[in-house]
């Protein structure tokens, strides 16, 4: 299993084990004593340097007295953890794909995202995120606030001391989509402009109505890692897919080059974002 210990599924499994232990209030040393395992091994598992067998995962979860639902979720991650491709689907897949994408963000050296219709999650303000999550009443209010907190925490990867390099390719329509109140939209656009000024972030706006290009097939994210093969991630309404296949990664790199060629350059993009904010503000 070691050959693929840095697959998105394996990263999500290791993060889930770490979070389950922390939630239980048990230290690595204490857990090691309970299982007669060195705490060094536990640290290697939790940090994604090794992947435990499903039998070991079951022992860990029993020692931590993890709830039945959480135990089942983590055991599902442990099954076939070494598989490179990973499809999550249905409501049960939502926390899994969230864990996978969060760990990919933390470990990446570069993230490239194509978002044709909305502002990307890493660049969203809490009010913008709240407007998306409360639309249609599909998410319980308590869950909405929890998810907003989780997303806010994920943004740390682009603002930390040694931030990840982030290229955001955003469809022009995303700047004008009426998500949230006018005030929330203005704040979102101002925030996007501020983030575009950071040295590790490049924002390029892709014009609408310019004919066919590969971005019209849908949004995607490319994660590059310093210690593992790159992965393409596709997120949909209640499912997601992580694809590390070399051919697909190569094709999506070509798609990124194509999209960048038709996109406005960073300076023009920043001017467009500021102009959109002014237009929304003037209309309120």
Q: Explain this structure to me?
A:
This protein has 284 residues and is of the alpha/beta class. The chain folds into two domains: 1-83, lambda repressor-like DNA-binding domains (434 Repressor (Amino-terminal Domain), Orthogonal Bundle); 87-124 and 154-283, 2-Layer Sandwich (Endonuclease, Chain A). It contains eleven helices and seven strands. Strands 1-7-6-5-2-3-4 form a seven-stranded mixed β-sheet, sandwiched between helices. A hairpin with a 4-residue loop joins strand 6 and strand 7 (240-243). Helix 4 (54-64) runs antiparallel to helix 5. The longest helix has 18 residues, at 266-283. It is globular. The termini are far apart. Mean pLDDT is 88; it is low at 90-94.
Keywords:
seven-stranded mixed sheet; 2 domains; 434 Repressor (Amino-terminal Domain); alpha/beta; 7 strands
Might you state the CATH topology name of the largest domain? Endonuclease, Chain A
Mean pLDDT: 88
Question: Unreliable stretches, pLDDT < 50, 5 or more residues?
Answer: 90-94
Name of the CATH superfamily of the largest domain:
Endonuclease Chain A
Number of distinct helices: 11
Radius of gyration: 20 Å
For the largest beta-sheet, the strand count, sense and barrel status come to: 7 strands, mixed
Question: Tell me, what is the CATH class of the largest domain?
Answer: Alpha Beta
Give the spatial strand order of the biggest sheet: 1-7-6-5-2-3-4
Number of strands: 7
CATH architecture of the largest domain: 2-Layer Sandwich
Order of helices and strands: HHHHHEHEHHEHEEEEHH
